[in-house]
Amino acid sequence: MIVHRLEARDIAVRLGGRTVLRDVSVRLGSGALVGVVGPNGSGKTTLVRALAGLQPLAAGRVVLDGRPLPRWDRRARAARIAYLPQRAAVEWPIRVDRAVALGRIPHTTAWRWPTPADEGAIDAAIDQANVGHLRLRTCTTLSGGERARVMLARVLAVDAPILLADEPVAALDPRHQIAIMEILHAAAAEGRSVVAVLHDLTLAARFCDRIVVMVDGGILADGPPDTALSGELVQAAFGVTAIEGTHRGRRYVLPWSIADSDGREFPTLPLTHGD
Amino acid sequence: MRGGVPAAPVLRPAAVRRAGAAGSVGVVTLSLGLSVLLAALCIAALFIGYTPLDTGQVLGGLVGRGDPRVVVIVQEIRAPRIVLAALIGASSGLAGAALQGLFRNPLADPGILGISSSAALGAVIALYFGLSAAWALALPVAAMLGAGLATLALYLLAARDASTLTVVLAGVAISSFAIALTSLAMNLSPNPYALAEMVDWLLGSVKDRSFAHVTLVLPFMIAGGALLLTAGRGLDALTLGEDGARSLGIGLRRLRVQIITGTALAVGSGVAVSGGIGFVGLVCPHLVRPLVGHQPRHVLLPSALAGAALVVAADVLVRLIATGPELMLGVVTALVGTPFFFWLIMKTGRGAPV
Predict the structure, then answer these.
(1) Partner residue facing A102 (CB), from B5, B11, B240
(2) Could you give the C-alpha distances from B125 to B129, B145, B174, B178, B277, in angstroms and in order?
(3) Does B274 have pLDDT greater than 60?
(4) CA B32 to the chain's CA centroid
(5) SS3 of A28, please?
(6) pLDDT of residue A92
(7) How far apart are CA B81 and CA B205, in angstroms?
């Protein structure tokens, strides 16, 4: 039986008079990596923020372990839901291991800092995100890929059963993208419930156990990559045709050209060489 | 990084931690060092004044033995002045460190952000209406109200956009307004004595203060200091931005109220007894920050101790420099602090790590 730890029930979010999320329901079980995909402005970030309890809701509620989020003690909730914001960064030039240690804040009070358990979680997170060699570097001098992995280590250090990551692989080179996805996948394999907002459909199809496709503030599809990222759904959601296939048993989806609603490709650019 | 994702090198965490300790002094070592420095400066300050005293006289004066005139000089002139200087310096250093952490902005300082001038305005209003004659606490309370209102206004102005420019400009606006109203009060001052009292007070000094002044402000400074010193966890979390901090279980509204109240209490009460002694809160966090590895929580206590040492030293300096009328402490800290402010603007503008 799947234990649903975090659940959004018919939630709606309005921002500046615009409905950004409407009637969204999603249940997150343990031990799965869930990819949230969708066009820009479809409400992916808002959904993840709502799941993290950072977004005031116009309707519905988010329930963690049977209790609505606002009724949780702040610190207890923070120890159960780790959240990696979009373009996460550190604002003072502090050392990498100290930045990772910030993830332990929900487990501490002003008077207790830190215990061997905290040290252990920090070391484990640093190992898991493979940033041991960066331990003594200063956060503000890291490259984009290094910073992304350090920020991921910071989130892993919370050691929460639920991990929400908003665009963890944005603006990274392919190698770092795959590295981050492998770390997230491993975190899910350990029994955590991991949610990642993604734009790369192939990464999503390859690494995620389940895909949530969002369009216009609602969920268009929710299921395993084979069904939720089918050619028709990709076209309906993104307005593109895609090259699909399977490599070593994992699905890949390569967006190819802009398509109209009937699936005809627009004869836009003469994509030939040497003319 | 060109190498992509290398295999994790075999670095044992404990060894790394030891190696890391060499990189920065560490908050405990630095605090101990600054405490020793502060104690040394306080002892030195007992010996420096307009009446030369030897060791025996100072020691005798401290315990109340010997020449009664010496006892008065040590116990009622020099000691309260030193204690007050240390308290005011510590409050400013602490408030500067907390504000810089809250705004995540290295240019935040109670003086630059208009908090001190608003506290001064509150005090001048109390002087203008003669409120302090009616109620002993009127001046410090008015100063703290001024500081609190200014901090609140600053927060509201900077709430949407906490960029360096917005915060500093909001501070300039608040400061200008407070100075304009202070000038108005001086302009309309009913008699030249009240005016002289205001001017003398605005320049900022700890001379001719008694232990009555110390006991007046001490409760407020302790309360404010406690609020600011316990904000470290929230300030650390804010290193990850506002969403990051909230996701770590930090109540941002509570944290802001805590720091605003703490700053108003600590800075307002300081201004209430000493007038405007500026730039300590700007300079001290920068002096200690690289030594403790830039983490906001670790900057708080050393910055307070550095502030105390700095103001005690500056007050020794004004007694050593022979001028006609004694130099005012606030004038000295401003003269030293302003070039530092220029340097900081240039450094920040170039995008160098702060």
Answers:
(1) B240
(2) 6, 11, 16, 11, 19
(3) yes
(4) 19
(5) strand
(6) 92
(7) 9
A173-202 residues touching B, CB cutoff 8 A = 173, 175-176, 179
pTM of the model: 0.87
Q: Which residues of A touch B160 (CB under 8 A)?
A: none
Collect all residues with Cβ–Cβ distance below 8 Å to B4 and sequence separation of at least 6: A145, A173, A175, A176, A179
State mean pLDDT over B61-65. Answer: 86
Q: Any residues with CB less than 8 A from the CB of A117 and at least 6 apart, and which?
A: A107
- Is residue B177 assigned to a domain? yes
- List CB contacts (< 8 A) between B241 and chain A: 85, 88-89, 91
Strand-strand pairing, A67-68 and A81-84: unpaired
Q: With an 8 Å Cβ cutoff, are B20 and A130 in contact? A: no
User: How does pLDDT run across B149-181, given as a tens digit for each residue?
Assistant: 998 888 787 766 656 677 778 888 999 999 999
Give the residue numbers spanning the domain of B84: 27-349
Evaluate whether B106 touches B294 at the Cβ level (below 8 Å): no
- DSSP-assigned letter for residue A259: B
CA A74 to chain centre: 21
Is A89 an interface residue toward B (CB < 8 Å)? yes
Which among B13, B17, B296 has the least Cβ separation from residue A92? B296
Question: In this structure, is residue B21 part of a structural domain?
Answer: no
Interval B324-332 mean pLDDT: 85
Which positions in chain A touch B17 (Cβ < 8 Å)?
97
Q: Is residue B20 part of a domain?
A: no
CB-based burial label for B131 (10 Å; 0-12, 13-18, 19+): middle
The residue of chain A nearest to residue B251, with distances taken between CA atoms, is: A74
Architecture per CATH, domain A6-221, reads as: 3-Layer(aba) Sandwich (3.40)
* Chain B contact present for A147, CB below 8 A: no
For residue B31, the domain's CATH number is 1.10.3470.10
Tokens 């200014």 belong to: B150
Cα–Cα distance measured from residue A244 to residue A229, given in angstroms and rounded to the nearest whole number: 9
- Give the pLDDT confidence of A84-109 residue by residue, as tens digits: 999 888 989 999 999 999 999 999 88
Asked if residue B92 belongs to a domain, the reply is yes
